[in-house]
Every structure is written in C-alpha cells, then in structure tokens.
Amino acid sequence: MQFSKLKAGNNFQGTWLCFCASVLFFPLFPAAGALGLVFVLGLVWRTKYQQILRDSLNQASIGLTGILILNCAIAQYPQEAWLGLANFVPYFLLFMALRCLITEPNQLKQLSWLLVLPSLPIVLLGLGQLMFAWDTPTLIESILGWELVPLGVPPGRMSSVFNYTNFLAIYLAIAFSLTIGLWLENWQRRGNNSQIQILLTAILLADVAGLVLTSSRNVWGLAIFSSMAYALYLGWRLLVWGISGIAIAVLWASFAPTMGGTQLRQVIPSFIWIRLSDQAYERPVETLRITQWQFCWDLIKDRPLFGWGLRNFSPLYEAKYNLWLGHPHNFLLMFGAEAGIVALLLLLAIVASIMFQAVRVMLHRCDRASKPIFFSYLVTFTSCIFFNLADVSVFDLRVNTIVWILLAAISGTTSSQSQPENL
Q: Which candidate, 142, 259, 265, 388, has a CA 20 to 30 Å from the CA of 414?
C-alpha cells in the first residue's frame, strides 16, 4: 500500500495522513482512533466551514439535526432522547467534514487498505478467544478500551475485540467486501504484485473464517450478496451459478427437510442449517424480530410525524412486555418510530441521492483502473444498508463511524468527479 500525495490543489495532505493513521488504529485502539478523527473533524471544519455550509447535501444534514433536536424536546422520555443524539449528530459533522477531505479515487483505495488490514489480527484474536479461551488482562483492557471475553459474546460465537458478535460480523462483512475489491484491482492491474495478492488472499480467508464463526445469519447472507455482486460485475457466470446453487442447497436443507432437505443435511455442516432454521434456540414471543417490528409499526402509527424520541424504544418496549431490548433489529423501523417519518424520509433522501449519483459516476465517469475499487464501495455500503434491515449498527462506536466514513467517501469522491472540470 502506497500513500500517494493528493493532487496539487489539495491542501489537506497533513490532515489526510492524520485521518489515515486514525482509521488504521481505530478498530484495535478505538480511543486513539476516535481522538484522531475528532482532530481531523476540527481541522476540516475550521478551514472549510463556509464550503461545508453552502453545500445542499450538508444543509439537508443540518436540517435533519434540527428535526432530531425538536424530537428530543417532545420525546416521551426526554433524557433518553437527548442522549440518543450522540448516535447521530457527531457522525453528521464527521460526514460533512470527510466529504471535503475524501475527493480523489486514489484515496478510496488507500482507505480500503486501512479498513481491511486490522481485520486480520482481529480474526486471529477471535480464534484465540474461541479455541483457547483467551481473555485480556485488566491493564490491557483499560489501555485498549475493549475486552476479549473467553468463548465469545454470546458464548460459542466469535466477538473478538467487539462487545457483541453482531458488531464483529458487520465489521468483517465490510472488510470482506472491500478486500475483494482490492484483490480484483490488484489482479486486473498489469504487473500486479504477487506478495500483495497473497496478503489479500490471507485477509480474505481470515474474514471468511470470522464471518462463519460469528454465526450471524445476517452477514452470511451479506457475504453471499457481495460475492454474487462481484461475480455479476465480472461476468463470471460459472461463479454466479455456483454461488446460487450453494445458497439454494443450504436454504433447502434448512427449511425443507421433508422435501429432500434431510439428505442435504448429511452434506452441509449442521451448525449452518441449524442456525439458519433457528433450531438452536427457543425464543419467547417477546424476543422475536416480528414482535419488535410490529411494536415499532404501532409506534409509528401513533406518532407518525416526529416520533416518540431517540432511544425511547427500549423503555417503551419494556413498559409493554416487561422485557428490556436495546433495539428492534431494524434501523428503518426504529428510526421511524423514534424520530418520525419526516426525519426518516429526509435521511433516506440523503442516502439515496448519494448512491444514485455514485452509480452514475461509476457507469459514465470512472476510468477502468478505478472501477473495481469504486464498485467495492457501492457493494459494501449496500451491504451495510441490508444489515440494518435485520439489525442496528448505530450503537457501536467503531461500526457506526466506519459506516459514515464509507458514505462520506462515496459522496465526496462522486461529487468531485461530477464537477465540470472532470469531464
């Protein structure tokens, strides 16, 4: 990986290097990484605040912030709602700043490396956690800011440096997708570096192993989606049929045992079809996703415009079912119930406009060398969207930050590439 200089007109070289160091350290040293990102945010806002405030997309983000503040003032549980702003407003500010910082295609490639490199030691720590019951000494825990829990959280599922397996799962899904993009870019480039190809292959295999051991049905589906997207992008029909066949066989074994699935269960590892069919657990009705989603929908119908208040789902759900749940396993329903339809539609409009512009840039303005990396960002962020349809990622500092970095990188690069001088 080479940190090439930014274009001559870009006066953010030092800020960019600080950002790179922060992102690289962030997964394993979150406190140091977060401090660096705050420093970068301050530098960009201090020098580019006029440009930031003039941008229409940033103005929409500021409008969304205003709606969320109003939401807190009228929330059912105001204290919870004001605390909930921390899951959104700082990330809006970071998003607006990074759109000015990340404007060149070569920055996307560098950022991909920074995001995927930590995944290798994270998976190795997770393997030690599961196989050898590794844990972290108190001193190390206080320095690093995370705890390695023997046998994972929950037990038997890899969580590594994250406090729950699902947060590790989405991080590895992001790393997996970006690693494929780097692997393909290096493979397609003439004179590709075999040592880099070997390193990327090792990271890719580690990410796959980690994804499997998280036992997250959600990210298993995301891994298949990412693989299928790349196969279609490359036109590898045989791989498309192969992935489709494996997926159909696994689903058949999981959900249709009386229609030939029993025979398939002799071939497919049992932990896969048991997990997919949810036979490993007995769940009370109150803990089912469908119950949570119905509850959110009822909340939306009762207060459709401005919602009940950020972070109000948990106390409201506990009041009805006498059960505390951190979130309803669907970001859109949660945000609609807590922040209201107005805020939800504005957020969706911001994201949709970025993705629409990004697709246009990739199809019409990206050079051949940049396309694999650019495509990898679109696939990766789409995976993040899909993940949040069956879970919520905003409550983990590292994952939430990485998702907003991805969106800012896509938006900043596409906006720059859409300027008339780039025609």
A: 388
